[in-house]
Design brief:
The protein is of the alpha+beta class and about 160 residues long. The protein contains 4 helices and 6 strands, in the order ββαβαββαβα. About 10% of the residues have low confidence.
């Protein structure tokens, strides 16, 4: 858990975190930092999820945190959509997680380590299913048109 001491809250947008205060403490739970990091990872296009079935069973959201000497190291496990560039997606996740955690908490993030655990074919499967449904609909319409044509010729 991170504890901040606030000296002056009216600093006009400057860094609010200062040690040796007289206003009290603000505590930021590691779970809060992990949640911020996880949501920031999901904001990146190409990231399907940050949790696997094992993570869900262990109530882990795919992000692990270490804090040493006031610096945060985050390990983020992601699933990338099929067809996306893994290096590009990973780099964007690292940038977004680092910037978001630092902005929201004021902590220094020293590392964001990415582990690509899976490739998701969800989007590809959905596209194939839509194409399949469209073909069925076309066949149905063609069949109806033939029936109508047959009725017209028998009259």
């Amino acid at each position: 858990m991170i504890i901040y001491n606030y000296k002056n809250l009216n600093t006009g947008g400057n860094n609010l975190m200062e040690n040796n205060n007289n206003l009290g403490q603000v505590k930021i739970s590691n779970d809060v930092i992990v949640t911020i990091a996880g949501l920031a990872a999901l904001e990146v296009e190409g990231v399907e999820t940050i949790t696997s079935l094992t993570d869900k069973l262990l109530k882990n959201n795919g992000v692990k945190i270490q804090i040493e000497d006031g610096k945060v190291t985050l390990d983020v496990v992601i699933t990338v959509e099929y067809g996306m560039s893994i290096p590009d997606v990973s780099s964007k996740v690292q940038e977004n997680v680092k910037n978001t955690v630092e902005t929201m908490t004021g902590l220094e993030v020293s590392q964001v380590n990415i582990q690509v655990q899976e490739i998701s074919f969800k989007k590809e499967r959905e596209e194939k299913e839509l194409a399949k449904q469209a073909k069925k609909e076309e066949a149905k319409l063609a069949k109806q048109a033939k029936k109508e044509e047959a009725r017209q010729t028998t009259k």
